[in-house]
Design brief:
The chain has 522 residues and is of the alpha+beta class. The protein has helices at 13-22, 32-37, 58-71, 122-129, 148-154, 161-164, 193-204, 206-212, 236-240, 274-284, 297-305, 329-343, 354-373, 393-406, 438-453, 465-468, 472-475, 478-491, and strands spanning 28-29, 51-53, 75-78, 93-96, 104-108, 113-116, 171-178, 183-184, 248-256, 263-271, 291-296, 318-326, 347-351, 414-416, 421-423. Among the domains are: 13-96, Uridine Diphospho-n-acetylenolpyruvylglucosamine Reductase, domain 2; 104-256, Uridine Diphospho-n-acetylenolpyruvylglucosamine Reductase, domain 3 (2-Layer Sandwich), CATH 3.30.465.10; 263-371, Alpha-Beta Plaits. The chain contains 18 helices and 15 strands. Helix 7 (193-204) packs antiparallel against helix 18. The structure holds flavin-adenine dinucleotide.
């Protein structure tokens, strides 16, 4: 049974705006400019909404959902729209939380947690927590603009998730409204009919969920059904994290804050190649690393070619940047020495000077941005954050290189190696001479099949969105995919929430921004 709302609504934008205004939602805009602005996120996809609503109070989200259900109009939530997989675009209504619902409501320093509205920008939360000696742990590269609601939507991570956990590990409790209109979660303080039905579904599918879900940390793709298992406390809030606004809308969240250890030390390890650096990762994970990032000589060359100074690196053509923290330099140096002893590196450097380690981290940060622009053809997202259990990372990287070569494609991988997550932008010819995306499709399908051999996850932190949802059936068996549909039917039976994503997915080559053949420039 399809739970999918129709792609195009039979309701006119004027009726939709009027229905919202009748319910007290006054910041609604169906102008061509606004619809165009919200038709894209940071991905390759473009879907033009009918209107954009910017709720001024949390309760207005309930009113928006009520109107959408009455008129059968799809609803897609949106924070900063920095999603790379088309997670935050949709037909019908786009609901922007960043404009008005952007407040840190309170911080409890003793409990080390903050109560936030969903549109709070990550950097604003850090600013509010810093005077209390606290910070929010996960740190996506987009921290200056991404919202905590969007991080919850995607189960975002970042470089230091190894030390501070993924978004899901940092949610204490939430208040969300499901597609049924039921308000649920640890902050809602009510019993939930949906939770009962999800528990029944879980108990009827233990043999599907236990072997396939929660196998490794960066298994971000699909719904995280492991959180509904009895042995994991049937945690509805945690289950909703990463569901990309397809099951419920987050109204408020309490998130964990951490007190940083005062000393950071960076261990830079050199290897003959990036794949060999990846082979060394499992041995390093026995140590308390906060971050473990991998990159290769191509990134370093790109940074140099861009005119930036590159500090001395240990000899090699592939490197790991491992960060450790502690109360004293003596403590971090002792951990660093143990890391080096287990690393099997050609050469290493232990960097305690903060300026120097910042310069080294800049290679990773600048290189990531420059890598995409260094290829002879334009490079795109679409396959940009797959993850494998770290024990398989080296083998996966070698196979991935082969997949690129076989499809006559190029890309410069790097990433969160300690978590098995590899970032890359690939120079797909998005529109070939026949006006098709044939290579895009064949590469993604072949990569998904190969990734499945390693028990990998299509997404390790960006979520599935429109780019990967169609491929979930290569990662999960048919029963698990059916279970996604059953879960959706419990939480969003009318299929109004972020349609085209996760359940009943749109093909990943539909709605591409570059899907029209371009005329050659004169
Ligand atoms: C250059 C670049 C670098 C990036 N680096 C990282 C990185 O290091 N680590 C990482 O994890 N990600 C990274 N990302 C991806 C992205 O920035 C993160 O996923 C970010 O957390 C998204 O936040 P946002 O506010 O932009 O959310 P949006 O893109 O607006 O939304 C994200 C998802 O959450 C849903 N959503 C939003 N608000 C709500 C709500 N209130 N209730 C329910 N669902 C909601 C949306 O519908 C959507 O599905 C990067 C992106 C870019 C462009």
């Amino acid at each position: 049974m399809s739970t999918r709302a129709p792609e195009t609504s039979s309701v006119g934008a004027g009726d939709l705006v009027a229905a919202l205004q009748r319910r007290g939602v006054t910041d609604v805009d169906d102008s061509t400019l606004t619809r165009a602005l919200y038709s894209t996120d940071a991905s390759l996809y473009r879907v033009v909404p009918q209107a954009v609503a910017r709720p001024r109070a949390t309760e207005e989200i309930l009113a928006i959902l009520d109107a959408a259900r009455e008129l059968q109009v799809p609803v897609t939530m949106r924070g900063a729209g920095t999603s790379i997989a088309g997670n935050a675009v949709g037909p019908g209504l786009v609901v922007d939380t960043v404009k008005h619902l952007n407040r840190v409501l309170s911080i409890d320093a003793d409990k080390q947690s903050a109560l936030i509205q969903p549109g709070v920008v990550h950097a604003s939360l850090q600013k509010a927590a810093a005077p209390l000696g606290l910070r929010f742990g996960p740190d996506p590269s987009t921290h200056t603009r991404c919202t905590i609601g969007g991080m919850i939507g995607n189960n975002a991570c970042g470089s230091r998730a190894l030390g501070y956990g993924r978004m899901v590990d940092n949610v204490v409790a939430m208040r969300s409204v499901l597609g049924t209109g039921e308000v649920v979660g640890g902050l809602a303080g009510t019993t939930s009919a949906a939770a009962d039905r999800l528990a029944e579904l879980t108990d009827a599918h233990l043999g599907v969920i236990r072997p396939q879900f929660g196998r490794f940390g960066r298994q971000v793709s699909g719904y995280s059904l492991e959180h509904l298992l009895p042995e994991h406390g049937r945690h509805l809030d945690r289950f909703l994290v990463g569901s990309e606004g397809t099951l419920g809308l987050v109204l408020e969240a309490e998130v964990r804050l951490v007190r940083d250890a005062p000393v950071r030390t960076l261990v830079v390890l050199g290897y003959p190649s990036m794949a060999e650096a990846a082979d060394a990762v499992p041995a390093l994970l026995a140590h308390p690393l906060v971050a473990c990032e991998g990159l290769d000589a191509r990134i370093v060359d790109i940074v140099r070619a861009n005119g930036s100074a590159v500090p001395d690196l240990p000899v090699g053509a592939g490197w790991l940047f491992a960060e450790v923290t502690g109360e004293t330099t003596a403590e971090t140096e002792a951990i660093a020495a143990r890391v080096v002893a287990d690393a099997g590196a050609l050469e290493h450097r232990v960097v305690t000077d903060l300026g120097e380690s910042a310069a080294l981290w800049r290679i990773r940060e600048d290189g990531a941005g420059l890598a995409a622009r260094s290829l002879s053809r334009p490079a795109y997202s679409g396959w940009e954050d797959a993850a494998v259990p770290p024990a398989h990372l080296g083998a996966w990287l070698r196979d991935f290189d082969e997949l690129l070569r076989h499809h006559d494609l190029d890309g410069v991988p790097y990433g969160h190696f300690g978590d098995g997550c590899v970032h890359v932008r690939i120079d797909f010819p998005l529109v070939d001479e026949a006006g098709r995306q044939a290579t895009f499709r064949s590469f993604l399908e072949a990569s998904a099949r190969k990734l499945a051999d390693y028990g990998g996850s299509l997404s390790g932190e960006h979520g599935d969105g429109r780019a990967r949802s169609e491929l979930l059936s290569t990662m999960y068996d048919a029963e698990a995919v059916r279970l996604f549909g059953a879960v959706k039917a419990v939480c969003d039976p009318e299929g109004l929430l972020n349609p085209g994503v996760l359940v009943d997915p749109d093909p990943f080559d539909a709605h591409l921004r570059a899907d029209r053949p371009r005329r050659n420039p004169p």
